[in-house]
Design brief:
The protein contains 13 helices and 18 strands. Strand 8 and strand 9 form a beta hairpin. Helix content is 39%, strand content 25%. It is α+β, with helices and mostly antiparallel strands and 466 residues long. The longest helix is centred in the last third of the chain and has 31 residues. Helix 4 packs across helix 10 and helix 6 packs across helix 7.
């Protein structure tokens, strides 16, 4: 049973909206959303903060709404990172173990990942995530969980996510200036995948395409391992801009047209279908052809989907061993565009579905929360809760280890040790080995808890921002 006292807050700082979401686990392990706050994002362009003052104001507005909705005072938030400054790369590295007669433990993996963190990046860049994919121990490859095994050479393939330090620190400044503590940070497509994808899809092979306001984020999973991530530097806002210029109307009307009447498939509309837009300052209403509207939308969506498919082919989805059996899952606000699923299937030839968060959210919750546009926020809440659960589990393990392994000497015993000059640390080698063998298996931790430690290191770095 999950601890219902653990409450996490996800803060999705997007190009079009900022969402603060408060949630906890119920007795069945499902996510129960306690409150949601939403504000128009005024200072973010293509996922990058370009006006700190406006972004702070938007964050405060969203957080205030979430506090009022949930009755919970928000102090710590898990924030998503995205934007055109994000890139990823593949890297292989290895370490040689001197103590090869002992099992591989967390310290070995930590040493290997720390070695990857020393990679030289381009000026102004910093590593955000180091995600091990597959391990190789001596001559045995294809290992997903090396801890508990024996070997002298530990090698791994890594998926490394990199971002501009200046852009990330700007987000940290905004969060801190809004009176909040940055408790966690994760790549937004990874957060969206937590909300939108099932374990079966991740195992079979699936591509998550998150069409946001400023960017389109892609994450590819295969065998329950993240294989590829990328960011396409445009999204739904570009479609709105095209409608605005193509129909000679203001942005607000263009957005309303896209949401209410927009279609990614121009063949669905007839030439005679017309919608009227209110005129400005007493002018005559402007008539817009829905056929023309869908043609404008189709051209831009086609570009987004073709670039997304290009990323999938770059990964090698057409190869037998890399085939994505579960196809594509569309999420983000852009996934709600009419007929986008059919167009995606037509372009890629792959099965496609729209990603909702129903599987993870408790029954009886508002259907609005499960919509694709809230997938990142829901995923950030799940990420925050998982991190809390891992920390609580680690504390319990540490406490049990102390109770089992640490014997507090009595004053008389301590005196004898001093007189005999045989401190407890100077036990015979055989006794030390025996103690190590008897160490409980509680030290074995999940992969996600391992990743969390390096994420914490990154958070510490950006929290030092003034």
């Amino acid at each position: 049973m999950k601890n219902n006292n653990q409450i996490a807050v996800g803060l999705d700082i997007g190009t079009t909206k900022i969402v603060a979401m408060v949630g906890q686990r119920n007795e069945h392990g499902k996510l129960e959303i306690l409150g949601v706050g939403r504000a128009k994002s005024l200072g973010v362009h293509r996922g990058v903060v370009n006006n700190i003052t406006q972004t702070i104001a938007s964050i405060k507005e969203a957080v205030a709404q979430a506090e009022a909705d949930s009755g919970y005072k928000i102090t710590d938030v898990t924030v998503g990172i995205a934007g055109q400054h994000i890139r990823s790369l593949q890297h292989s590295d290895y370490i040689t173990r001197n103590n090869f007669e002992e099992v591989i433990d967390e310290s070995d993996i930590k040493r290997l990942i720390n070695q990857v963190h020393k990679l030289v990046m381009l000026p102004g860049e910093e590593i955000i995530h180091v995600l091990p994919q597959e391990f190789k121990i001596d001559s045995d490859g294809g290992i997903t969980e090396p801890m508990g095994m024996y070997g002298s050479r530990l090698e791994a393939n890594f998926h490394v996510v990199v971002g501009q330090v200046a852009s990330i620190k700007n987000i940290a400044r905004c969060v801190k200036s809004a009176g909040l503590n940055l408790a966690g940070i994760t790549l937004e497509p990874i957060a969206s995948s937590l909300a939108s994808l099932s374990q079966e899809e991740k195992e079979a092979g699936v591509a998550l395409v998150d069409i946001g306001g400023g960017t389109t984020d892609i994450a590819i999973f295969k065998d329950n391992i993240i294989r590829h991530t990328s960011v396409i530097p445009f999204g739904g806002n570009v479609i709105t801009d095209d409608i605005k210029s193509g129909c000679s109307i203001i942005e607000r009307h263009a957005e309303q047209l896209k949401v209410k009447f927009g279609s990614a498939w121009p063949g669905e509309n007839k030439e005679t279908e017309i919608v009227a837009i209110p005129g400005l300052r007493g002018r005559e209403p402007k008539e817009i052809s829905l056929k023309k509207l869908s043609q404008i939308i189709h051209a831009r969506v086609l570009e987004i989907l073709e670039q997304s498919y290009s990323e999938l082919k770059h990964y090698g989805c057409d190869e037998q061993r890399k085939r994505l059996i579960a196809g594509i899952v569309l999420t983000g606000g852009g996934a709600e565009l009419k007929h986008i699923r059919q167009l995606t299937e037509y372009i890629t030839g792959m099965d496609t579905r729209i990603g909702y968060s129903n599987e993870h959210i408790a029954g009886g919750q508002s259907k609005v929360i499960a919509k694709p546009e809230y997938a990142t926020a829901v995923g950030l809440v799940i990420n925050g809760l998982e991190k809390m659960e891992e920390l609580a589990q680690a504390e319990q393990i540490e406490l049990r280890n102390r109770e089992r392994n640490i014997v507090v000497p009595k004053p008389t015993e301590e005196k004898e040790n001093i007189e005999n000059k045989t401190p407890q640390s100077e036990k015979p080698v055989e006794e030390k080995k025996q103690a190590k063998k008897e160490r409980p298996q509680d030290t074995f931790k999940s992969k996600s808890s391992i990743f969390a430690k390096w994420t914490d290191k990154f958070i510490k770095m950006i929290n030092e921002t003034e």
